[in-house]
User: Fold these one by one.
Assistant:
Number 1:
Amino acid sequence: MLTHQGTRPHKCKVCNKAFTQTSHLKRHMMQHSEVKPYNCRICGRGFAYPSELKVHESKHESGRENICVECGLDFPTLAQLKRHLTAHRGPIQYNCNECDKTFQYPSQLQNHMMKHKDIRPYICSECGMEFVQPHHLKQHSLTHKVSYRHYCLNMSSADLA
């Protein structure tokens, strides 16, 4: 009768969603709890309701493998899924043990650590200057080009203003 009248007296204290029956509110509250008794047999993600589990497992069966364990979205590649996970968990920080710098990717931290270890594998064939990154050597090599050097040597401070 309450459904036909539009009356929903049972309100969720977490999200304010209202229900006509106490049993519907109790079932809804499972979404807000840590209790997820229905687990995916493939990836282990837990669900509050068997219907949610069934929908999720059908994604695995259809060949969609890169599924977010937080929200159920699927992605064409693992890299895209990992990028998406930062929206739920926040970016992972990779910290340098030598200084207080942090990095978003482990490769960035590895490159940075080369500076602390004074590893500079990229050497200029013109002057012997050493660089950690290949793109730094490439940028530096432009200074050895005749036209670039001529331009810089002949430029006055008035030209820069």
Number 2:
Amino acid sequence: MSYSAAENDRRTANILLIGKIAGVNPGTARARVDFGDLGSSDLPVGQLRAGALSFWWMPEIGEQVLVGCPGGDIAQGVILCSIFAGNAPSSDAGVPLIALAGGMIRVDGSIEVTGDVVASGISLVEHVHGGIQTGQSKTRKPE
């Protein structure tokens, strides 16, 4: 096989790679990826949206990711998404889930919900208050 053909094969094989996050730099929205026999420099972490409407996520060390490498050049790679590796948070495909691992989610803006919201077992729509009096009195905590 000629050098040119071998180089073309290598570049084609490197267009999409699966690896694990080896380091994260949230200040630059970049992370390093370990592909087993080789690693990357800091690569940009792709986002669902990155304009006025933005979604922000940074992978964690050890998380499995898919990296797209234009022309098969890992140095030009972009982390496209994460891939579950036996750690899916649910087996129910019919119920979307955001698993925050005990963390929090922050929304800069308003949220409109057409159904109920339940927090710590208390329904926003169906909850009741004790100690209701007419006038300027305040109610107790919802039950």
